[in-house]
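Hi there,

I know you've been waiting on this one. I reran it after we fixed the sequence typo, so this is the corrected version. Both the input and the resulting structure follow.
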Amino acid sequence: MSQPVPTTLAAWLQFIEQQHPASIALGLERVREVAARLQLGKPGKRVIVVAGTNGKGSTVAFIEAIAHAAGWKVGAYTSPHLERYNERVRIAGVEVEDAALVEAFAAIEAARGDTALTYFEYGTLAALWLFQRAGLDLAVLEVGMGGRLDAVNIVDADVAVITSVDVDHQVFLGDDRETIGAEKAGVIRGWKPVVCGEIDPPSSVLRRAYQLGANALRFGSDFFAEVIDDRRWRWRDVGLRMELPMPALVGPMQLANAASAIAALRALDRRVPRTAWAQGIAAARNPGRMEVFAHNGVDVLLDVGHNPHAASAVARTLASRPCTGKTHVLLAMLADKDAAQVAGVLQEHASSWWLAGLAGERGRSAQALAAVLAGQGIEGRTYPDVAAALAAVLEHAVPGDRVLVTGSFLTVAAARRCLLPAG
């Protein structure tokens, strides 16, 4: 007996979670087949695809904000979400409504036949279906994992961005930067530019660009970001120099992300009004990336970083923003993440550790996390969940202290629910 067709977004999300035996199943055959049945074409007049280990979401936010300030109609697809699934699909700067996603999922379900799709594949097809109907000037698509075999890669990018390459998702992508770089380089297209957010990307990325005739533009080599003072920075390449306001997004790494976003838009070779660069850089927001909340004289910093590379960026931010008091670290991580290395990177900044459990199939209890960190010589207080740990550390902290909450999107989402006003 066939299942009734869901009628609400919540019911659809529950349904699509159950349609493939694996939560992650890389490959393009299934999603290409269903996209063909849906007659999906190019999702916008121009397309930028953003891949990378860290910095993808922030780079998408900068591209989206600048293009929006330029008067373009922009669609942005990102993942995962923090609080609402709708965050993943934005059109003209606004999250799509439940009804639009329900319509998109129903269209996919009607077209897929016996083809099993993962949760991410459903979501990617839904975003592309909605974008195609929106008449976009620009579609900005964030890769979920890797690049070569990610569902987003059924779309040909006019400009590809690879923000950074480091070790993460080793089970799926490989154990070293060269192997992982080759996977991310799968988003590069022949004779189309690729923007690299680091001066020394893996040779596998540059080799793929060379093979395809793609012009590789590297941060620190082909385009630059230079700090002028606390409020201003300079972007420049061989053809343009401009002074810009510091991003609202916090951390030294955000200049590389902002600079890469500018390079990607310039590579599209479509005019951007000069005022739009500054407006977009100042307007870009990306919740959960070194997001700061004030609580009774204590700064609470939230960051979704869940691998050593991201933790290094967090550590640099902490070093660049010293506080007058102590730094308390609330850590909660999934079981398949390298908690020992993440904690090791943050250890020199931490006055105390507050360890929380995460539920779910990939979750890790606070006790299991404590056992891993013990190998680093780290002792922390343990709590069943993030809400309990956050309440405890905020009770302990005094004005002038700061609390870093990090380790996972789930960690940050739980903390934000506690910190944001109800309703």
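Quick highlight: Residues 37 and 111 are 6 Å apart (CA to CA).

Best,
R. S.
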